[in-house]
Amino acid sequence: MKKSYLYLLATILLAFLFFSFNSAKIKSQIEDFQPLFSGGPGTGGLGDRTGSPLSSATCAQCHSGGSFNATLGVQVLDGSTPVSSYTAGDTYTVVYTVSGSSNGFGFQGGVLTSTNAAGGTFSSPSSNAQLVTISGRPYFEHDGGPSNTGVFQASWTAPIANTGTVSFYGVGLAVNQNGGTSGDQTTSPVVFSLTEACSPTTGVDTQIACDSLQWIDGNTYFSNNTTATHTLINAANCDSIVTLNLTINTVDNSVTQSGVSLSSDVSGAAYQWLDCNSNYSIISGETNQSYVASVNGNYAVQINQNGCVDTSACNSIASVGFLENSFGNELLLYPNPTNGNFSIDLGSNFKSTTLSITDVKGKLIQSETFFESQILNVSLSEPNGIYLLIIESKNKKAKIRLIKE
User: How many whole angstroms from its chain centre is CA 32?
Assistant: First the structure.
């Protein structure tokens, strides 16, 4: 009984070894046969066989022994024109051509960036080719057995801008169609690279300036402008076209004078009145749109509006102390206060003009008559104080308070 048991056990062990050996042999034959007749290595589960940096091997690992002078060429076409650079996002035709004395051909090709990422996408393969994705990257290869033309093509859409150079990798195969992998020839791996063509970029330079702007093109602009352009070279060594969007802010620095009152012609700004006779010094507290002079002199206003600052011309005030005046705004007295020597401008020539000077009590101090005169030059030798000037000519009369100091 024990002898029969050992015999049965030995028979089972021999049967297991026999079937294991034949199973491995059959699997090996299927793997040798599969890449050729069920499509390329990608669909056969063998991965990238193009010779790219991601490839673990080429088709030569399985196919060898043949001599057909096999070669592989790669072209990228824009229409029918071969290209050496691409424009981001555009679509091209990629053609892999296997040549040799055989009458059966296969191949695998893929496209990668310089960092071995997907270099765009394939679509619309020819009838003898099929698309395959390997580790998230695009490839295409022969489909349904060897092709008798050796020409395989697909559409390729280039990657996004600033991807840089992309490389098409590929390996071709010339076969003897004996149903196995012996007697076939694998081409050397091929690499065809395309540089990225310059894609011009555009931008807008928005500027707000006071009165004028000297822009990057070297020109000076004095008014609003939205049409000027200038071309720079960007980081990708491509054109960068900049359009100017310029707003010029100006300040109206005109001033209206009425007697001893000055008023800026612009509203809604910030103001500072200045004494021109004192090196444009600030007049303390005078920050309103209008200014009423208390002393004869020359005055200007500094205006700040929309971030721009400008100063008006100096305006002369010579009528401080005018108590009565029918000569009009052209009548001037200067300087007032005076050291004793002063002038009166009547604004025009008068045939006869009388000037009387009294003290504050009305006592006549001095009286003169001027003939055919416009400018009356007067000298007052009285002590410092306040005096009243009375100017008369025909039906015109003026009374002016004069300060001697």
Answer: 58
Residue type present at position 45: G
Common-topology check for domains 30-196 and 322-404: yes
CA atoms of 183 and 63, how far apart (whole Å): 7
- In 3D space, the residue among 390, 387, 391 whose CA is nearest the CA of residue 401 turns out to be 387
Count the alpha carbons within 13 Å of 384 in the hemisphere toward its beta carbon. 4
Distance CA 343, CA 49 (A): 108
The model carries a pTM of 0.49
Q: 């024990």: which residue's tokens?
A: 2
Distance CA 118, CA 134 (A): 10
Given pLDDT bands bounded at 50, 70 and 90, which one contains residue 200? Answer: confident
For residue 247, give both structure tokens.
């707003």
> Can you read off the two tokens belonging to residue 18?
């026999």
Burial profile 155-173: b = 16 or more Cβ within 10 angstroms, e = fewer: ebebbeeebeebbbbbbbb
Q: Which of 404, 400, 405 is nearest to 318 (CA)?
A: 400
The CATH topology of domain 322-404 is: Immunoglobulin-like (2.60.40)
**What six digits make up the tokens of 393?**
């000519």
Locate the domains of the chain by residue range.
30-196, 201-249, 255-317, 322-404
Nearest residue to 391 (alpha-carbon basis) of 381, 382, 402: 402
The predicted pLDDT at position 21 comes to 42
Task: Provide the pLDDT for residue 180.
Answer: 81
275 beta partners: 281, 299
3-state SS, residue 31: helix
- Domain 30-196 is classified in which CATH homologous superfamily? Reeler domain (2.60.40.4060)
365 pLDDT band, cuts 50/70/90, is: very high
Residues 44 and 37: beta-carbon distance below 8 Å: no
